[in-house]
Amino acid sequence: MSSTPQTYTVSDFIEWNSKKQLNLSPDFQRGSVWTPSAKVFLIDTILNDLPMPQVFFRTKIDAATQTMTREVVDGQQRLRTVLEFAAGKLKLTSKSPRFKGKTYADLDVTDQEIFLSYKIPCVQLINADNSMVLEIFARLNSYSVKVTPAELRHAEYIEPIKWAIYDASREWKYLWNELGVVSVRDSVRMKNVSLMAELFMTLDIGFGDGGEPTITKYYKSKKTESEEYFLPIRKKVDAILKDIIDNFEGDFSETPFFDAPNFLVLFSAVAYLKYGFPDTRITDGVEEHKAEGVDWENAIETLAEISQEFESEHNDEDADGRHSDFVSASKSTTHRISSRKPRFQLLVNAFSNHAA
């Protein structure tokens, strides 16, 4: 048996399928079914000539009949989606902004050619038996870097919650690429998606304990919600982020307030004052400020004072200590309520239009 890395075009797979030389459902294939959003996202990947993961298939060569068949070992859903779109049975949605509302037949000839000529990376397992297929995948997995919880969620979930949060993370790339709220290196491992998930969670269920297990629990609890459920949350996320950038970027983008842990607290304080959200242990004691609005002048002055205290501590200089609780809480486990509450409440009390 040999394993041969190669590329084949989409048109190759269409031809093999029409000649019944492609088996998409061998006994060892998984039976999961992609959502429409996942399918459209893949077609958008192809139409934009972006890379997709390798497809593994077992090529069975029959020397006597001089025939060849290909059994898909890994990549069934990807190939089913490609064939479905080629057959005109899949209409693109907002997950493919440039091609929204189009089927294959609606594409320009140039885009049809891009689709048909797209090269899918493949590995052929020539005449491999089942035991060898399993051995190959065991070896591949042994070399893999351990996935992050965010990567695992992105692989596991196909429901609207995944796409709502992922799309927001992708469209707010300015936060990661330019402002460094989450570093580019960490964003590669999808930690920016984890932060975006916490922004959604705060608006939806309130500001509480965070961390990856809590985010995963949220995904699980919301997996049956429709795409429409997340639209008003996304609208608020966008408005709050725009407010933060408009009012704070110029003076504070180089301060700890534009690092993920304190950025989340800053977002939550503005969100509570601007819209309100479900009360939790963290909001206990500041409910009078809920949805009272933001005094941006006080907010800027407060952030300047706290930033100065951070800088003094970093330079081992004396500080006035007015905001020592905030600085101290920023050093502890930042996803626990015990750390989040004093920072959140200080900002809410200082930013509120209802402040004394």
Short précis:
With 356 residues, the protein is α/β, with parallel strands linked by helices. It is 53% helix and 9% strand.
Essential attributes:
2 domains, five-stranded mixed β-sheet, elongated, 356 residues, alpha/beta, single chain, 16 helices, 5 strands
Structural class: alpha/beta
Please tally the β strands and state the result.
5
Strand order of the largest sheet: 1-5-3-4-2
Approximately how much beta-strand content do the residues carry? 5-15%
Plain-language structure description:
With 356 residues, this protein is an alpha/beta fold. It has two domains: 3-142, no CATH class; 149-351, no CATH class. Helix content is 53%, strand content 9%. A five-stranded mixed sheet has the order 1-5-3-4-2. Helix 12 crosses helix 14 (296-314). The longest helix has 26 residues, at 227-252. The N and C termini lie far apart (78 Å). The relative contact order is 0.09.
Describe the protein's topology:
Blueprint: E1 3-9, H1 10-18, E2 22-23, H2 36-47, E3 55-62, E4 67-74, H3 76-86, H4 109-117, E5 119-126, H5 130-142, H6 149-156, H7 160-171, H8 173-177, H9 184-188, H10 191-205, H11 212-221, H12 227-252, H13 260-274, H14 296-314, H15 324-329, H16 337-351
Parallel strand pairs: 2-4, 3-5
Antiparallel strand pairs: 1-5, 3-4
